[in-house]
Design brief:
Immunoglobulin-like; Endonuclease/exonuclease/phosphatase domain-containing protein; 15% helix; Exo_endo_phos_PGAP2IP_C; seven-stranded mixed beta sheet; 43 strands; mainly beta
């Protein structure tokens, strides 16, 4: 049965498929690719034709709230006024995740549009179902779709990819409209770009491609596509499509052929998908490439800042309606609003003369562009001195940014931190902790307003012989695979054993997940090799990989030398494809109950903010010692790590180079150990990043001390 399914699947892929097409609401067959339409060498192109094109990755209809709602998708398209739309990530009877709906038909019906569907994944029906399970791309159109064909593209093996083409009759003019969802591998995308250009190069007439490229416009694959096509957003910067809840990059494109004049293009704010749709207004003009008109004028720098006495070269670009860009620095005229601050003695040369701000205006043709200029005296952001409660910090040095100060364990009042900058024109801001223990941040901003330095003073309490020492580790084990992606759980166990860690929080832990980890219960095996107790928190829980095996799971875990008394796994708010969680354990450390958490946060700032709120709320309810470890996917200076640092101690605060990823080329710290005020930090030199490539992350390990007072022992003895 499986063999037959594979043959059927391949037969679809090694033929350039002519795809069943529908006009809303009735399905019908369509003309062959050779049928003659105007603009295809068999008619007359109408130069006044205008179209609004859209590209939209709909994520199977699922929005940022994890709810599938095709009405929201249709509403976004309707409000945009788009005439032709390329959709990516579209289900057709695929699974329960989209209620087995034919999504393209449903959206087309809601909009009263023609549509065509191009499946890139084609699977046998589920048990009890009759429709094949499909996933792919779709094209919607206000105008009749005369034919459609699916062109297979190279792929990385995880998912089939294709270029889906529709020939649309727009008032007698044949327009070829394409959509594609490119691979996740950069090397494969370069091949796909060449294949797409080869397909388009063999066709005549006006063309528009809606491309979900999975790549930035600086990538080789996108640059290659733009050797033969225009970018509708060529004259814009700061237009982002991903993720929808906090757009930070553009990986979606509308690419028309050169016979289209480019009009307004924009991304549409919407949370109906985790990706933003983009639209562009296009006007068909056979002379567009030969005789373009000026569309926009802009400096290549949005703004500049420079020190008094320095000079800086800038460039001015003119953008034309055919998508071409021309540098016109030497051809424009310039004027400074305040030439005494900065002027332009020759085209493109900005001269900084006095501290202050001004704007330089460029004029070219009928258009103008402005360049904000800030001029400053120095960029010195060092401190000259630092005091604690009025007393100079004995160990202070201007180039040392991190300090640890011991305060009496009974102290309640936060010491007052004051500081003076080396440059009197610089500013100083002191952010004091709300309680002890805590960190005071001293932020120095230089006169240029951009150069900054951050000094940190960590206040921690002294230890006594009654306190309970424990060595803590956080380790993203990359499902037991090393930096070369070779699975070797013995090496993972050796790294933990050699560190001396007694309680360990693990992330990316497989449990019968797949063959990548030999379908093992990796946490049980690690615990057995180390002679430890363990707890597991699955964040992904799927059907078994093989008959007779438990569910396929992936998540976080805790290993402990001490007994684990209780455990609970919390699902954190998550967007996109991977559920995130917080594993809570209560551990008996020599009679002291300690709450120990292991977590792995999402990849984007919006998820991290929500998930951090949830973690702080859950852990904040506990009265006793609390330790939180994990892969937070955020750097120490991020707002969320700052919020955690306001309530918890971090052993590595004095070690700015404690990078944890990637183990074969470390560049960032994203793994942490946090402890509340019921614990004390160990010696700074005992906080270590373990240099090993048994994972793609370095594990981190540190000593903590569970506070214990004499009264606590006496009370315990009395009980």
């Amino acid at each position: 049965m499986e063999g037959k399914r594979l043959i059927q699947f391949r037969s679809l892929w090694f033929i350039a498929m002519v795809v069943l097409l529908a006009t809303t609401p009735v399905y019908r067959a369509f003309a062959s690719p050779d049928s003659g339409l105007a603009g295809d060498g068999k008619g007359t192109v109408q130069p006044a034709l205008k179209l609004k094109a859209m590209s939209y990755q709909i994520n199977s209809g699922k929005g940022t709230d994890n709810v599938v709602d095709l009405d929201r998708i249709a509403d976004v398209i309707r409000a945009s006024g788009a005439d032709v739309i390329g959709l990516q990530a579209v289900d057709k009877h695929y699974s329960s995740r989209s209620s087995y709906e034919d999504q393209a038909k449903r959206i087309a019906d809601a909009l009263g549009m023609h549509y065509a569907y191009g499946p890139t994944v084609d699977l046998a029906p589920e048990q009890g179902k009759t429709e094949r399970r499909q996933f792919g791309t779709a094209i919607l159109s206000k105008y009749p779709i005369e034919s459609a064909v699916l062109h297979p593209l190279s792929n990385s093996g995880t998912e089939k990819r294709a270029l889906f083409e529709a020939r649309i009759d727009v008032n007698g003019t044949a327009v070829r409209f394409y959509t594609t969802h490119m691979d996740t591998s950069a090397a494969v995308r370069v091949k796909q770009a060449d294949e797409i250009l080869s397909i388009l190069g063999g066709q005549t007439g006006p063309k528009i491609a809606a491309v979900y490229a999975n790549a930035l416009d600086t990538s080789a694959e996108v640059k290659r596509l733009l050797t033969s096509l225009s970018d509708a957003f060529f004259d814009q910067t700061g237009v982002y499509t991903n993720p929808a809840y906090l757009p930070a990059k553009r990986i979606s494109y509308i690419m028309p052929s050169y016979d289209w004049e480019l009009g307004e293009a924009r991304a549409i704010p919407s949370l109906a998908s985790i990706h933003l749709p983009i639209v562009s207004e296009l006007t068909l003009n056979p002379d567009a490439h030969a005789n373009p008109s000026l569309k926009a004028l802009a400096f290549t720098d949005k703004a500049i800042s420079e020190m008094v006495g320095n000079e800086m070269n800038v460039k001015l670009n003119a953008y034309y309606t055919n998508g071409t860009v021309k540098e016109v620095t030497s051809s424009a005229s310039y004027a400074s609003r305040q030439p005494e601050v900065a002027d332009m003695p020759s085209p493109g040369l900005v001269r900084a003369q006095a501290a202050g701000k001004t704007e330089i205006t460029a004029t070219y043709g009928q258009l103008t562009a402005e360049l904000p200029v800030a001029v400053y005296m120095t960029r010195n952001a060092e401190l000259a001195s630092l005091q604690i409660d009025g007393e100079p910090l004995a160990s202070f040095a201007p180039d040392r940014l991190f300090y640890r100060t011991i305060v009496p364990r009974e102290a309640k009042q936060v010491p007052v931190v004051t500081a003076q900058p080396a440059d009197p024109n610089a500013s100083v801001e002191v952010l004091a902790p709300s309680s002890l223990p805590g960190i005071a941040y001293v932020v120095v901003t230089a006169d240029d307003g951009k150069t900054t330095a951050e000094y940190r003073v960590q206040f921690t309490a002294g230890r006594t012989e009654l306190d309970v020492p424990v060595r803590i580790m956080s380790f993203n084990i990359h499902h037991g695979a090393d930096s070369g992606d070779t699975y070797d759980l013995e090496k993972t166990a050796d790294a933990i054993r050699q560190s001396g860690a007694e309680v360990i929080g693990l992330q990316e832990v497989d449990r019968y997940y797949s063959t990548r980890s030999n379908l093992e219960d990796t946490v049980a095996r690690l615990a057995d090799m180390l002679g430890m107790h363990y707890a597991y928190g699955p964040n992904l829980d799927r059907a078994p990989q093989q008959p007779g095996l438990p569910n396929s799971q992936y998540g976080t875990a805790v290993l402990s030398k001490y007994p684990i008394v209780e455990q609970r796994n919390y699902a954190l708010t998550s967007y996109g494809q991977e559920q995130r969680g917080l594993l809570e354990t209560r551990i008996d450390m020599d009679g002291v109950p300690v709450y120990f958490y292991s977590t792995h946060l999402g990849l984007d700032a919006v998820q991290q903010q929500t998930q951090t709120d949830e973690i702080l709320a859950i852990a904040g309810e506990k009265d006793g010692p609390v330790i939180i470890v994990g892969d937070f996917n955020a750097r120490p200076y991020s707002p969320d790590m700052r919020r955690i640092a306001a309530a918890y101690q971090e052993p590595f605060v004095s070690k700015p180079d404690a990078y944890t990823i990637a183990s074969n080329r470390p560049y960032a710290k994203i793994d942490y150990i946090w402890a509340n005020d019921k614990l004390l930090l160990g010696d700074a030199e005992r906080a270590e990043v373990v240099q090993t490539e048994v994972s793609d992350h370095f594990p981190i390990v540190s000593d903590l001390y569970v506070k214990r007072e004499l009264n606590d022992l006496l009370l315990g003895a009395g009980e």
